[in-house]
Amino acid sequence: MQNDIKDVLYSEEQIIQKVKELGAQLSTDFEGRNPLVICVLKGAFIFMSDLVKNITVPLEIDFMAVSSYGASTKSSGVVKIIKDLDVPVEGREILIVEDIIDSGLTLSYLIDVLEHRGAKSVTVVALFDKPARRTVDLQPDYRGFTLPDEFVVGYGLDYAEQYRNLPYVGILKPHVYEK
Ligand code: XMP
Ligand code: MG
């Protein structure tokens, strides 16, 4: 598995350090707000797990799974909810936890859905951001790292459902795609 990685972009230590910083900032900003923290499956599952351990204020967690129709490594903008939330969001302060923002289409759809359902506020924390590929005007409120326009795997992120268990984030070697 490690042999398929061309470059490690961020090590496990660098990611954990960043997640701690994000957690500390969110702890301050969400004091007294009892947020509903929503993990966008599957990619954000490791980030979610590490992040909530570093948020010190009371919160609830829930999970959503979405998939976009169309091309495999690109978002089509048509998003399907595969697993919905268990709890109503009306009047709640929402923190969406995303692995990576690429075109921004998935997130903009999710924000629309939650606002439509009457969320009091919707805040986004994304561990990774690829601003070069954005097709909608959307920025995360909190961001871990800005990435170049490369497909990355690890720390929850996959290629064909593989590599999610790598503790770091890296760029795949081309031969993996060409198999
Ligand atoms: P959009 O384009 O809607 O897409 O912002 C966000 C989703 O696309 C996936 N994505 C990636 N997954 N490595 C991955 O493993 C990447 O480099 C990558 N870029 C985008 C991801 O599922 C994210 O939620
Ligand atoms: Mg994803």
UniProtKB/TrEMBL annotation:
Keywords: Cytoplasm, Glycosyltransferase, Magnesium, Metal-binding, Nucleotide-binding, Purine salvage, Transferase. Residues 9-159 form the Phosphoribosyltransferase domain. CDD domains: PRTases_typeI (cd06223). It comes from the Bacteria. GO terms for cellular component: cytosol. It is found in: Cytoplasm. Its cofactor is Mg(2+). GO terms for biological process: GMP salvage; guanine salvage; hypoxanthine metabolic process; IMP salvage; purine ribonucleoside salvage. The keyword Iron does not apply. Its EC number is 2.4.2.8. One of its GO terms (molecular function) is magnesium ion binding. Its main location: cytoplasm. Pathway: Purine metabolism; GMP biosynthesis via salvage pathway; GMP from guanine: step 1/1; Purine metabolism; IMP biosynthesis via salvage pathway; IMP from hypoxanthine: step 1/1. InterPro entries: HGPRT, Hxn_phspho_trans, PRTase-like, PRTase_dom. It catalyses: GMP + diphosphate = guanine + 5-phospho-alpha-D-ribose 1-diphosphate; IMP + diphosphate = hypoxanthine + 5-phospho-alpha-D-ribose 1-diphosphate. NCBIfam families: HGPRTase (TIGR01203). Purine salvage pathway enzyme that catalyzes the transfer of the ribosyl-5-phosphate group from 5-phospho-alpha-D-ribose 1-diphosphate (PRPP) to the N9 position of the 6-oxopurines hypoxanthine and guanine to form the corresponding ribonucleotides IMP (inosine 5'-monophosphate) and GMP (guanosine 5'-monophosphate), with the release of PPi. Belongs to the purine/pyrimidine phosphoribosyltransferase family. This is Hypoxanthine phosphoribosyltransferase. It comes from Paenibacillus oryzae. The lineage of its organism: Bacteria, Bacillati, Bacillota, Bacilli, Bacillales.
